[in-house]
């Protein structure tokens, strides 16, 4: 995987992140979702590397990156904390301003990054996500039946017990659909109890703190300052839940939001890598 890329464990003020980076050109930060690691980008990143310096970390709590010492400290798992990691990482790599794309749970970290550090983010792409506050405020029977895991994963103790019984059966995935090396990295992550707890912490912070941060920003009138492009999987349920996805995002952005659907299931980086890379390149390279 990632031919020509470097792999490093990078110590930052609050966390140690496993990071894969390579390519040439302006910096582009890619943030993975749940329950993946940075290797989910293994087909997309090389397609972008001729135009960008691509940086793919394991978010704190995921993969081989460090986990907060106190599993019940929601702030340590918050998207605000993960955004601080991203800023520290880009500082360490020597990048002042950069572009960022986030998928699934990574989209919430990317959103928080753009809101908390507007002077650093030049462009933002959100993949398969809406703001956590919007998701909770619009929650109905469709959301509850489709995204029940949001509420289950936020409970104390019970989700760990369910997942630890058979992580492979719980999370699914296969070498055929994910690629052998990506699948092996994913399996190592979900078989590690500390990583599973770290991934659950992301959901616990979502219901405890992240939506509060969203609400504070909305009440203060803070919006995303940079261009925002939203991409969603046509074979997943974002349109089913929200209809016009772009209209959900527009009130959160200073500029007009653009977007598109891709013929893919939820894990678009693995299921439609060429289409996703093309869409990202078109957005991030445009003047």
TrEMBL record:
Gene Ontology BP, a term: acylglycerol catabolic process
InterPro entries given in the database record: AB_hydrolase_1, AB_hydrolase_fold, AB_hydrolase_sf, Epox_hydrolase-like
Top-rank taxon, per record: Bacteria
A Pfam family reported for this protein in Swiss-Prot or TrEMBL: Abhydrolase_1
Keyword Phosphoprotein on entry: no
Keywords: Hydrolase
Keyword Hydrolase: yes
EC number: 3.8.1.3
Gene Ontology molecular function: any one: haloacetate dehalogenase activity
A GO CC term assigned to this protein in UniProt: membrane
Positions in coiled-coil regions: none
Residue stretches making up the AB hydrolase-1 domain: 26-178
The protein, known as: Fluoroacetate dehalogenase
């Amino acid at each position: 995987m990632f031919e020509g890329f470097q792999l490093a464990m990078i110590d930052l003020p609050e966390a140690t992140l496993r990071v894969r980076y390579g390519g040439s050109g302006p910096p582009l930060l890619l943030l993975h979702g749940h329950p993946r690691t940075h290797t989910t980008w293994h087909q997309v990143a090389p397609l972008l590397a001729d135009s960008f310096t691509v940086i793919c970390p394991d978010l704190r709590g995921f993969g081989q990156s460090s986990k907060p010492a106190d599993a019940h400290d929601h702030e340590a798992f918050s998207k605000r904390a993960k955004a601080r990691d991203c800023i520290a990482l880009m500082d360490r790599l020597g990048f002042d301003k950069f572009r960022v794309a986030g998928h699934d749970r990574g989209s919430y970290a990317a959103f928080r990054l753009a809101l908390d550090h507007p002077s650093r983010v030049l462009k933002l792409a959100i993949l398969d996500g809406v703001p956590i506050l919007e998701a909770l405020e619009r929650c109905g029977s469709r959301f509850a039946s489709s995204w029940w895991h949001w509420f289950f994963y936020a409970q104390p103790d019970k989700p760990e017990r369910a997942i630890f019984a058979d992580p492979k059966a719980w999370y699914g995935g296969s070498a055929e659909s994910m690629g052998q090396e990506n699948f092996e990295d994913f399996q190592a992550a979900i078989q590690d109890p500390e990583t599973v707890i770290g991934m659950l912490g992301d959901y616990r912070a979502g219901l405890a703190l992240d939506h509060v941060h969203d609400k504070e920003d909305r009440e203060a009138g803070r919006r995303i300052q940079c261009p925002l492009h939203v991409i969603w999987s046509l074979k997943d349920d974002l349109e089913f839940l929200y209809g016009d996805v772009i209209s959900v995002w527009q009130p959160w952005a200073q500029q007009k939001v653009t977007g598109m659907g891709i013929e893919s299931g939820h894990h678009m980086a693995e299921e439609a890598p060429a289409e996703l890379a093309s869409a990202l390149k078109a957005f991030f390279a445009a003047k």
